[in-house]
Automatic annotation (TrEMBL):
It catalyses: N(6)-dimethylallyladenine + A + H2O = 3-methyl-2-butenal + adenine + AH2. The keyword Flavoprotein applies. It comes from Gossypium trilobum. InterPro entries: Cytok_DH_C_sf (IPR016170), Cytokinin_DH_FAD/cytokin-bd (IPR015345), FAD-bd_PCMH (IPR016166), FAD-bd_PCMH-like_sf (IPR036318), FAD-bd_PCMH_sub1 (IPR016167), FAD-bd_PCMH_sub2 (IPR016169), FAD-linked_Oxase-like_C (IPR016164), FAD-linked_Oxidoreductases_BP (IPR050432). The keyword Flavoprotein applies. GO terms for molecular function: cytokinin dehydrogenase activity; FAD binding. It comes from the Eukaryota. GO terms for biological process: cytokinin metabolic process. The lineage of its organism: Eukaryota, Viridiplantae, Streptophyta, Embryophyta, Tracheophyta. Keywords: FAD, Flavoprotein, Oxidoreductase. PANTHER family: CYTOKININ DEHYDROGENASE 7, GULONOLACTONE OXIDASE. This is cytokinin dehydrogenase.
């Protein structure tokens, strides 16, 4: 098998592997799945970000965990081959690419695990790392009336993909990110070993893989915490003119005990204009809702702020009971009273709310255009300065998509994982979700992202990139700070030849051949 693999990688390039070589390679690896090459691999050479493009040697569609382990083992017996796990292709900066290496299509394993468990009275679901959260939601609710506790805003992402980063949405203030809501993983390490890990078993791999950006292993199965699923959601948006009032109320809501706040808290910044994408029309929840700018005080600045909240309830709850609960929470907030928008939707419909955005973007061609997104965690101590310069000046006309901002609680995150956070109990996630229209060049928007990061560094803001991507090891060292040594030790333990996730530009592939 080694001789066959060596011949293929030496005699051919990533653009084209002859069919007979692909067949021979497949037989040599003894895969139950399939190997594809040539033009078929084009999809594995790009991602949702649309900023990078490379040519993998081959696209592997494994039938299960054993296939993935065989591919990693085969790469380890060469001097240069790398392996990248690709979920649903929604990375932004080429993180799931392998130039001249193997890309593993994790979606081909999505049906391998789906098993409910009850342990000490608590409910869990074992799911494949290649399963989409959207499908996990639908199946758990329809079959068991249960659902995971923590989500992302967009659910057409794989379980393994989000757990390799963090997984954040409006429930994270209460339950923590998705990485705080799993109790067991099955991982294929960079040594090609299949390892089951948890807090008490192979714990260094468990915590290292969570938020580990795919550097330590490929997550093939996860045990996810479940809770009873509500039937309905009261979905609400309210508007603020002052950033300090917006953040005060958002922080108040996320620091209340369960039952004393909403079940979901997010927010976003929008332009104080009639721009259909970036301005007032982006706020109403329903086409029948009207945003009346006459209610905006004359003292308002270039941008406004929207607090988005949601309250879960059951079909058996009386409407008056829900109204009372919502009113009790809203009366403590300082928003513009005439700029409030409410909608009752099913729980599943609420969690799939971004699906409509996807369908609309695909219909108008925006979905397949580049997405130079920027995601940042910023400490509470720095967020006012960030608003004053970035939101009110640099981005006052919008970014062609949502500018999310909402507070999170550090105590809900496990410091043993590989995720890196700013200091302080309260910090904010800022997500600039650009949809590039016809007009401004991608290069200009990428340059603006760099300008924002450069300004943050210059002013000494306490921040960390979320979904990070750097071009050098020195940048990664600065990102991890005092956690860098721990991360390198874990990398040395579980992927000593730096085979995995080469698109992150962490470590150079070593030339040590595995015996």
């Amino acid at each position: 098998m080694i001789a066959c693999l060596g011949r293929i990688v030496q005699d051919t390039d990533a653009d084209s592997i002859p069919d007979d070589d692909v067949s021979t390679l497949s037989e040599s690896l003894d895969l139950q799945g399939t190997i594809e090459s040539g033009g078929i691999t084009d999809v594995a050479g790009k991602d949702f970000g649309g900023l990078y493009s490379v040519k993998p040697l081959a696209l592997i569609k494994p039938s299960g965990t054993e296939d993935i382990a065989r591919v990693v083992n085969a790469a380890s017996r060469t001097s240069h081959l790398t392996v990248a796990a690709r979920g649903n292709g929604h990375s932004i900066n080429g993180q799931a690419m392998a130039d001249g290496g193997f890309v593993i299509d994790m979606r081909s394993t999505e049906e391998n695990h789906f098993k409910p468990l009850t342990i000490d009275g608590s409910h869990y679901i074992d799911v494949s790392g290649g399963a989409l959260w959207e499908d996990v939601l639908k199946r758990c609710v329809s079959m068991f009336r249960l659902a995971p506790r923590s989500w992302t805003d967009y659910l057409s992402l794989t379980v393994g993909g989000t757990l390799s980063n963090a997984g954040v949405s409006g429930q994270a203030f209460r339950f923590g990110p998705q990485t705080s809501n799993v109790t067991e993983l099955e991982v294929v390490t960079g040594k090609g070993e299949i390892t089951v890990c948890s807090e008490t078993q192979n714990s260094e791999l468990f915590f290292g893989a969570l938020g580990g950006l795919g550097q330590l292993g490929i997550i093939t199965r996860a045990r996810v915490k479940l809770q009873p699923a509500p039937d309905m959601v009261r979905w609400i948006r309210v508007v603020y003119t002052e950033f300090e009032e917006f953040t005060r109320d958002a922080e108040f809501l996320v620091t209340q005990e369960e039952g004393e706040s909403f079940d979901y808290v997010e927010g976003f910044v929008f332009s104080n204009s009639d721009d259909p994408i970036n301005g007032w029309p982006s706020v109403p929840l329903d086409p029948d809702h009207e945003f009346n700018p006459a209610y905006i005080p004359q003292t308002a600045g270039s941008v406004l702020y929207c607090l988005e909240v949601a309250l879960h309830y059951r079909n058996s709850d009386r409407p008056s009971t829900v109204d009372t609960a919502v009113s009790r929470l809203l009366e403590r907030l300082g928003f513009i009273q005439r700029l409030k928008f409410e909608l009752n939707v099913s729980y599943v419909e609420f969690l799939l709310r971004v699906k409509q955005v996807e369908e609309h973007a695909k219909a108008n061609g925006n979905w397949d255009r580049p997405h130079p997104w920027l995601n940042i965690f910023i400490s509470k101590s720095s967020i006012v300065d960030f608003d004053r310069t970035v939101f009110r000046k640099m981005l006052k006309d919008g970014v062609g998509g949502p500018m999310l901002i909402y507070p999170l609680l550090r105590s809900k995150w496990d410091s043993r994982t590989s995720v890196v956070l700013p200091e302080g109990e309260i910090f904010y996630i800022v997500a600039l979700l650009r949809f590039v229209p016809k007009g401004p060049t991608v290069e200009k928007l990428v340059a603006q992202n760099h300008e924002i990061i450069k300004w943050c560094n210059k002013e000494g803001l306490d921040f960390k990139l979320y979904l990070p991507h750097y071009q050098s090891k020195e940048d990664w060292k600065r990102h991890f700070g005092n956690q860098w040594t721990r991360f390198v030790e874990r990398k040395t333990s579980f992927d000593p030849m730096a085979i995995l996730a080469p698109g992150q530009n962490f470590f150079k592939r070593t030339h040590i051949i595995k015996p």
